[in-house]
Amino acid sequence: MSDCLFCRIIRRDIPASIVYEDDRLLAFNDINPQAPTHVLIIPKQHIESLNALAPGEDAIVGEMVRRAAAIANTRGIAESGYRTVFNTNRDAGQTVFHVHLHLLGGRSLTWPPG
User: Fold this and answer.
1) Active site residue 98
2) Is the pTM of this model over 0.90?
3) Gap between the terminal Cα atoms of the chain
4) Statement: residue 113 has pLDDT above 90
C-alpha cells in the first residue's frame, strides 16, 4: 500500500532506526517510545490489522513474536521482563493500519496498561 507509513519505511522512503531486518520482517525503534526499549516489529507484507490476517499468513505472527523475544534478549531485558502488544483498530489504539507488534521493556510496566 503506497501511502502506508510503515510500507514507506520498508521502502526506505522514510528513515527509521532499524534494529533488525530479514526478507519477511523489519524492526525499528518507535519514534515516540513509551519505555527505554520500544521497538516495532512489522511484516514487510502489508496486512492492515490482526483482523485482516488470512489463514496462509498465520506464521508471520509467530515470526514477529519470536523476533520480539530475540530483540529483548539482545537488549538485555529478557530476564527482567518485557511486554508485547498488538493494538487492533482505533479503540485499541492502532494508529498505523499495518499490523505491528510493540516490544516494550527496560522499566517496570504497570497493569492495566491504560
Assistant:
1) no
2) yes
3) 31
4) no
